[in-house]
Amino acid sequence: MYTTVQVHDKHFIPYLSEAVIQEKIGELAAQINTEYAGKRPLFLAILNGSFMFAADLFKQITIDAEISFIKLASYKGTKSTGQVLTAIGLDIDLHNRHVIIVEDIIDTGKTLHSFLPQLHHQQPASVALAILLHKPEATEYPLHIDYCCFSIPNKFVVGYGLDYDGLGRNFKEIYQLQG
Ligand code: XMP
Ligand code: MG
After folding, report:
1. Does the structure show a pLDDT above 70 at 172?
2. Which numbered atom of ligand 1 lies nearest the CA of 135?
């Protein structure tokens, strides 16, 4: 049943149903199928949060396409570079490839903003962003989002891959923090 859920100490209310999510993903996939026909795009899904979105999106892709999964880990760089992001598991040569980054949510935008320049070093033919959720009110780092399922208010959400302190990723729906 799709009702209020408790995750750890917090209560979450139903926000985006399974049907709504799947319908939107279908629309996004149709657009990608048209725009990337003959380009053999490489979907690059960022773990952990995007695993469900990436799987459902990829199932709706009908053109030749590849998928790979990476994790972004941040470590302290030098004083001038500050926090540096490294991609774990990036074992495919991106040179001349059409890359579609698959991410669960853009909040401040900091994660992707710091990671994208590293991708461009490998000289891909193109890089596009396919994002499940975007919080425009929270976004501080400018990003061009090519494919976005839902723009949402600046409230914490869980489910469909997104977690609150490790739990809630298994929900088929997306829930919003109550209050
Ligand atoms: P930035 O700020 O770099 O952050 O765009 C993206 C990462 O922040 C996490 N995040 C959330 N996780 N519910 C979550 O479960 C949320 O409402 C939420 N907002 C941000 C998430 O890990 C994402 O990759
Ligand atoms: Mg994430």
Report:
1. yes
2. 19
